[in-house]
Structure formats: structure tokens, C-alpha cells
Amino acid sequence: MTDATKRSIFRWIHIFFGIPVIGYVHSPFKELPNYAPVVRYIVIPVILLSGLWMWEGQLVRRLILNTRFRYTQ
């Protein structure tokens, strides 16, 4: 898989998971308890991880590989 394809996939994941945040912000106050757990525990972490991967993907990969090799040797 090329780097451009990976970036495109992460970009669309980032956009797709941003849609519930818009619904959370613009929903009536009475319905916020319905959205809150999903947005807090699923949507926000996915947005943060995909954004971090798009921003500093090489650094994240290097850190993961170094940690994995350190514990296997």
C-alpha cells in the first residue's frame, strides 16, 4: 500500500469520525447524555490517533518499532 493511500484512508477516518462531534455540539441539551459516552470514549480517541498518525506518522512508527524490538530481545 502506498503512502498516499494510507494518508487518504486516515484522512477519511478523521473526517468520518468528526461528524458525531458536530452532532454532539449542535444537539439539544436534553439529548447530550445520549451522545456523551460515544463521543468521549470512541470518537475523540479515534480522531486524536488518526490526526497524530497523519501529522507525525513516521515518528509514531519508529517509537512503536523501537519499543517492540526492545522487549523482544
Characterization of this structure:
With 73 residues, this protein is mostly helical. The chain has one domain. It contains two helices and no strands. Helix 1 (3-26) runs antiparallel to helix 2. The longest helix is centred in the last third of the chain and has 41 residues, at 32-72.
Brief characterization of the structure:
With 73 residues, this protein is mainly α. It has 2 helices and no strands.
- In terms of structural class, how would the helical and strand content be classed? mainly alpha
Shape: elongated
Major pleated sheet: none
CA(first)-CA(last) distance: 29 Å
User: What's the total number of strands?
Assistant: 0
What's the pLDDT, averaged over the residues? 85
Secondary-structure topology with pairs:
Layout: H1 3-26, H2 32-72
